[in-house]
């Protein structure tokens, strides 16, 4: 009723004569072709403006045993306290009896662009005596977010922008043992790689020597391949040769990124840098000669963030959606609107 009142009031207003919109013109002399400039390239600027206004969602999940530096790494990635670090004492008491899932939201702004970041932590994963099926609550959470999105999407009066809580990226922390992947690692990645973008990382890489690190990386890559585990960026989703060349390098050389996180600054050559003090000196987090943190950061945030979101929407969510709508398992049956219905809605 409120809306219709507004409408009535509006229609009584006499519209003022509008000025003709100004069409941007290409400066003369640069493009001398008769047909001239159309203005297609302004789409980029238009998109930029829209994104500046609305901001965007990015949801990142961290999985791995307690104490592997998950919270520290996320804080290092986003240069802020976006995830609570474990207190270091009484750790045993704190470990939950089952896997818990905790999502914390933040708004980060840079250069006028707002990112609504959600960090999804999974305390308790891999910390039980029996870790069988401990990936299940995580898969359930991921699917629940797809379900929420789907429910909003099939709504007749759906929102213009559906809030996106879907997990765009899952960082999986591998313990820096130097041996091989544990059955738990393989089980988790095997099941979850079908529903979410997994990026495996070797945690606390400063605890390994350079040789150990290189060898461990190679072994992990081999084991993932032998077990048929597809991590992000998945080969089958490369869109062209340029993608393939770029992503092959990541798949064959960078993965799994051997990372170090820290929230402490040290003075190195007169500059303050994030680092960790070790018996061998300061390990600089952002120095590529020391670890691959910067590679991971560039990959997740600076080159592939939009792609992580697109693969989530176009592949993982689409797979979920197709399954749900085909099988109709649980979702209220779709009602077909009649012609009459449709008109009366207009
Ligand atoms: N050597 C080393 N220590 C690290 C690194 N990252 C974090 N730590 C330390 O490891 C301990 C645990 O770090 P957290 O970030 O709390 O680990 P977490 O995986 O979030 O732990 P939970 O929240 O208990 O699951 C802290 O004392 C950190 O300072 C790293 O890259 N190298
Ligand atoms: Mg933590």
TrEMBL record:
<dbReference type="Pfam" id="PF00735">
    <property type="entry name" value="Septin"/>
</dbReference>
<feature type="region of interest" description="Disordered">
    <location>
        <begin position="326"/>
        <end position="346"/>
    </location>
</feature>
<protein>
    <recommendedName>
        <fullName>Neuronal-specific septin-3</fullName>
    </recommendedName>
</protein>
<dbReference type="GO" id="GO:0005737">
    <property type="term" value="C:cytoplasm"/>
</dbReference>
<comment type="similarity">
    <text>Belongs to the TRAFAC class TrmE-Era-EngA-EngB-Septin-like GTPase superfamily. Septin GTPase family.</text>
</comment>
<dbReference type="InterPro" id="IPR027417">
    <property type="entry name" value="P-loop_NTPase"/>
</dbReference>
<keyword id="KW-0963">Cytoplasm</keyword>
<keyword id="KW-0547">Nucleotide-binding</keyword>
<dbReference type="InterPro" id="IPR008114">
    <property type="entry name" value="Septin3"/>
</dbReference>
<keyword id="KW-0342">GTP-binding</keyword>
<dbReference type="InterPro" id="IPR030379">
    <property type="entry name" value="G_SEPTIN_dom"/>
</dbReference>
<feature type="domain" description="Septin-type G">
    <location>
        <begin position="54"/>
        <end position="327"/>
    </location>
</feature>
<dbReference type="InterPro" id="IPR016491">
    <property type="entry name" value="Septin"/>
</dbReference>
<dbReference type="GO" id="GO:0005525">
    <property type="term" value="F:GTP binding"/>
</dbReference>
């Amino acid at each position: 009723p409120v809306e219709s009142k507004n409408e009535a009031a509006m229609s009584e207003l006499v519209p003022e004569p509008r000025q003709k919109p100004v069409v941007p013109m290409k400066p003369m002399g640069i493009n001398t072709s008769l047909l001239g400039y159309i203005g297609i390239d302004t789409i980029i600027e238009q998109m930029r403006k829209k994104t500046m206004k609305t901001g965007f969602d990015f949801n990142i999940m961290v999985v791995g045993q307690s104490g592997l530096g998950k919270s520290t790494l996320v804080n290092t990635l986003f240069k802020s306290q976006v995830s609570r670090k474990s207190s270091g004492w009484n750790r045993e008491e704190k470990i939950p009896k089952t896997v818990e899932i905790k999502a914390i939201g933040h708004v980060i702004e840079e250069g006028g662009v707002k990112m609504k970041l959600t960090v999804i932590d999974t305390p308790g994963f891999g910390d039980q005596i029996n870790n069988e099926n401990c990936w299940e609550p995580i898969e359930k959470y991921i699917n629940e977010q797809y379900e929420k999105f789907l429910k909003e999407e099939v709504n007749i009066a759906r929102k213009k922008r559906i809030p996106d809580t879907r997990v765009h990226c899952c960082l999986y922390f591998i313990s820096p043992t130097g041996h091989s992947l544990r059955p738990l690692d393989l089980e988790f990645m095997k099941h979850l790689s079908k529903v979410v973008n997994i990026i495996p990382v070797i945690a606390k890489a400063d605890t390994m020597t350079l040789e150990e690190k290189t060898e461990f990386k190679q072994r992990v890559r081999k084991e993932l391949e032998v077990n048929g585990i597809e991590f992000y960026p998945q080969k089958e989703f490369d869109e062209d040769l340029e993608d393939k060349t770029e992503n092959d390098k990541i798949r064959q050389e960078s993965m799994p990124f051997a990372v170090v996180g820290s929230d402490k600054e040290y003075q190195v050559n007169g500059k303050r840098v994030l680092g960790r003090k070790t018996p061998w000196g300061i390990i600089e987090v952002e120095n590529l000669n020391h670890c691959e943190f910067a590679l991971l950061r560039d990959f997740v945030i600076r080159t592939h963030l939009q792609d992580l979101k697109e693969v989530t929407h176009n592949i993982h969510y689409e797979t979920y959606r197709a399954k749900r709508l085909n099988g109709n398992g649980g979702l209220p049956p779709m009602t077909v609107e009649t012609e009459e219905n449709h008109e009366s809605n207009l």
